[in-house]
TrEMBL record:
PANTHER family: ABC TRANSPORTER PERMEASE. It comes from Tuwongella immobilis. This is ABC-2 type transporter domain-containing protein. The chain crosses the membrane at residues 20-46, 136-163, 183-207, 219-242, 248-265, 334-354. Keywords: Membrane, Transmembrane, Transmembrane helix. The keyword Ligase does not apply.
Length: 359
């Protein structure tokens, strides 16, 4: 098959995927969710707040004040010995300017407004940290968590309808190999999801940047990580679809496969950081390592996203990353490459099965 013909067919398959998404209402649903989220980000504002750091200056907690409320300082130089945390807390609450003028202590103040001022929330951190926390929730919980699973569910029906005997018989009559049709459909779905992910991430980033003045480019790195994560498990959805031609089986199969891979990934890390388990070694250790390296690694992708967004400033880790690094268990580049290799193997399996199927 000549390259121009393949590119033409690929363009047609991408356009057909977008057409199917529009016809099924999926495009409208995802666009509505994205626009509402962008509107929410655009409604966020701040008033009365002060920056607690400049440049890369690290913030520190005032000692013994955690139980009285959040307060941050930029420097401990010049601070007197704190005999009574309650006394300092009272000073901060009643006259924070006095503490700032006398000792150079900058305390958290101001409020965050939501809904264009309809709701006000007192700040527990400065503006930059608050915006980064919101972005972390949007990227981790909404996009990479619920969004990933919903995207797998919503797109699971694309391939079974594509593989119905009435539709496949027409497509297979065209001058294009079966693997090309399957690859074209995979690329079509990836292009559709890439458009939605880019609109969601870039739109929320622009909305919050314009409203708050906080421009954290690390948030944009969420886009390629989301696409890698989705692409891995959509490839398995394709295998199930080719074998069963069932939307329900594709949905259940891809989610179960995600849970299995996540369990193997997390279990391997827990194995390495738990002395009682790691000291066992032997055959068990080999099985754990082999299972880890031959399967996709959703937990690792989550850890990479965690690091990209500097989430350690806001949330604890479910795995002790320092122990994992000491055990040689953290290799982000190899983790991504091996996950992509596993995806390639899954796509080849789907192509082989599609080639054997009679229509």
């Amino acid at each position: 098959m000549k390259l121009p013909a393949f590119l033409y067919a690929l363009r047609w398959l991408i356009a057909d995927t977008v057409r199917l998404a529009i016809a099924s209402g999926l495009f409208a649903v995802m666009l509505t969710v994205t626009l509402l989220t962008i509107l929410f980000c655009a409604s966020i504002g701040f008033r009365g707040d002060v920056p607690l750091r400049s440049g890369n200056e690290k913030l520190e907690f005032l000692p013994n004040l955690d139980r009285f409320g959040p307060m941050r300082v930029t420097s401990m130089v010049g601070m007197p010995p704190i005999a009574s945390a309650a006394l300092v807390y009272e000073t901060v609450m009643n006259d924070p300017q006095r503490l700032e003028n006398r000792y150079g202590v900058v305390t958290v103040r101001g409020r965050m407004t939501i809904g264009f001022g309809l709701l006000e929330v007192p700040l527990s951190r400065d503006r930059a940290h608050t915006v980064q926390t919101i972005q972390l929730v949007l990227a981790g919980a909404i996009a990479d968590g619920a969004g990933l699973l919903l995207a797998l569910v919503w797109t699971a029906g694309f391939l079974p309808s594509f593989l119905e005997a009435s539709a496949a018989s027409v497509l297979l009559a065209k001058p294009m190999p079966r693997w090309g049709l399957l690859l074209g459909k995979y690329v079509g779905v990836m292009v559709f999801v890439a458009g939605q992910a880019t609109l969601f991430v870039a739109g929320t980033w622009l909305a919050m940047g314009i409203r708050t003045g906080v421009w954290d480019a690390h948030y944009l790195l969420t886009i390629p990580l989301l696409l890698i994560h989705f692409g891995i498990f959509f490839s398995f959805s394709m295998v199930v679809a080719v074998c069963t031609r069932s939307t329900i089986a594709s949905v259940i199969g891809s989610i179960l496969f995600w849970l299995l891979c996540w369990g193997l990934n997390f279990g391997r890390h827990a194995f390495l950081v738990t002395p009682e388990l790691s000291q066992a070694g032997g055959l068990t250790g080999w099985i754990v390592e082999i299972s880890y390296w031959v399967t996709p690694k959703p937990a690792d992708l989550g850890l990479i996203l965690f690091d990209v967004l500097r989430a350690e400033d806001y949330f604890g880790r479910i795995v002790d990353i320092q122990k994992l690094e000491a055990a040689g268990g953290v290799m982000p580049t190899m983790s991504v490459l091996s996950s992509l290799a596993a995806t390639m193997g899954i796509l080849i399996l789907a192509a082989v099965q599609f080639r054997k199927t009679d229509y």
